[in-house]
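Recall the central idea of this unit: under ordinary conditions, the amino acid sequence of a chain determines the structure it adopts. In this exercise we apply that idea directly, starting from the sequence alone.
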Amino acid sequence: MTKLYTPVNEPKLELTLSLGDKIMILGSCFADEMGLKMKAAGFDVCINPFGTLYNPSSIASSIERLNSGKQFTKDECVPMGAGAGKICSWWHHTSFAKESASDFLLGANASLAEASSFWKECNKLIITLGTAMVWELNGSGSYGTKGQIVSNCLKRPSGEFTHRMLSLDECKNCLESIQNLASGKDIIFTVSPIRHLSQGAHQNSLSKARLHLAIEALPVIPDTVIPDPVRGSQPRVCYFPAYEILLDELRDYRFYAEDLVHPSKTAIEIIWEHFLNAVVPEDEHERIQENLREHKRKAHRQILQEA
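Accordingly, the structure predicted from this sequence is:
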C-alpha cells in the first residue's frame, strides 16, 4: 500500500501522568493549548502563571521566582509602549497589564502566590520550549538592568533591546537550572512545533536545533533513572515529540491554521491523542474521555444561557 504520510511512533514513556498528579505547565502558546486540553480532561494543572513564555532563560527565571515566591514590587513595574497606557513587567505577558502599577501588582502577586503554592506541591512539570531567540535589555532604556532577558518586550521601542540567539551552552545551563530547581518533580520537555519566522526560516531551524540539543544534553534523558527513597527508581526527564509529529507525520498545510504557522484544531487533537497514549495509563483513558465530554456539555449549556 502506498504511504501518504510518515508516522511518528513514539514509545510509551517511562514517565507517566495521572489524574491524581499536580502538574505545572510552562512555555510557549503550544503549552497553553495542551494545558487547556489537560484541564478540560480533568487534570490538576497550573498553566503559565506569568503568561506565555518562549525561551529557556525566561522559563528558568520564572521557575526560580515560583520557587522563592518573592512578590513583585513597584520597582519592577514597566510602562508599556506604543501608547498602550498600561503597566506590566518584564516577567509577564501583556495580558497581565493594568491601568495602574497598584492594580498590576495586585493581580501579578495574587497569581504568583497561588502558583508558588501549587509549584511547591506539584510533582510533575511540562515545559514547551519555543525558541532560543531572546530580547535582552541593552541599557538604553529607563527600566530594568542591562543584560536582562525579558519575557515580553511590552511594545517598547526596539532600540531598548538586543535581539540575539542563546548559545547552546546558555540553553543547556538554563535547562540544567530548571532541573535543579525542580528537585523531586518529573519533567516532560517538548519543543513547540510553531515556527518563529521573524528572522527567517534558517534562523528558526538553528534556534529549534539548539533547543533539541540542549534537551538531549541533560544528564537524565529519557530512559536513565535515579533512585528515590520514597518513589523508587523513576525517570526524571522525558522528551515528547510534539515537534516531530506536526512537522513529519502532519506535514501538510491542511493541519495548520490560516497563518500557516500555528497548528490547526485538528492537529492539536492528533498531538493530544499521541500525548495521551504516550504518558497516561490506559486505565484512565475512559475517565478522561468522559471528563472531556462533560466539559463540552458544560460549554454548550453556557453558550445557550448566554444566547
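Helices lie at 29-40, 56-68, 101-121, 168-181, 201-216, 242-249, 265-279, 285-306.
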